[in-house]
Amino acid sequence: MTSSPRQERATRPALAIATIAVALSATLSGCYSGFKANTNEQSLMNSGNGTQAQIGEIRIENATLVLGPKGSGTATLLTTMVNQGSAPDSLVGLEIDTKPVYVTPGGSELTAGAAVSFGFNSAVWINSYEFTAPVSNYVPVKIQFKDAGIVLLNVLTVPPTGIYAGIAPVPATLPAAS
Question: Is the pTM value of this prediction over 0.90?
């Protein structure tokens, strides 16, 4: 059986609409991934879920300040630093609320293509032993890398409760200078 001209004309609009729909679904879905994805732009704003930043090839993920035990004047910076570059870099300076902090030995080297987590499920810590900011306050944090440079961010303070329960500076007191 052969198709009539009338049947061919009836299927052309449906075929055209289907072709357009397939082409548009791929372009309108916005399936771009990576740190610079449009859907990731919200993470560059301060939030209760940690602050994000990028300087050169170094990415700072989910930076959050957990206050130490009540009355201790301490805080721990929880974060993950990711070296996306092909060369190593190192952490050479860090301040929380314009005061120097203590980084546990071994925590300052960032191997190329690797990530270092600080504070939570980690062997390395970033602690402030002169901390006075209240809960739910944004505090300036300055992080300096040998090659990538300096990044400034505002990090939210949270109490050591809920998912942050049990997080406290390690070591509990500032070690003596050696």
Answer: no
What is the amino acid identity at position 140? Answer: P
Taking residues 57-84, report their average pLDDT: 95
In the chain, domain spans: 48-164
Q: Are 60 and 153 in contact, with CB atoms under 8 Å apart?
A: yes
Q: Which tokens belong to 129? A: 């032993």
- Return the SS3 of 76: strand
Residue in 129, 115, 147 with CA at minimum distance from that of residue 77: 129
Cα angle value 136/142/147 (rounded, 5°) = 145
- The tens digit of pLDDT for each residue in 115-136 reads 999 998 899 999 999 999 899 9
CATH superfamily, domain 48-164, is PCu(A)C copper chaperone (2.60.40.1890)
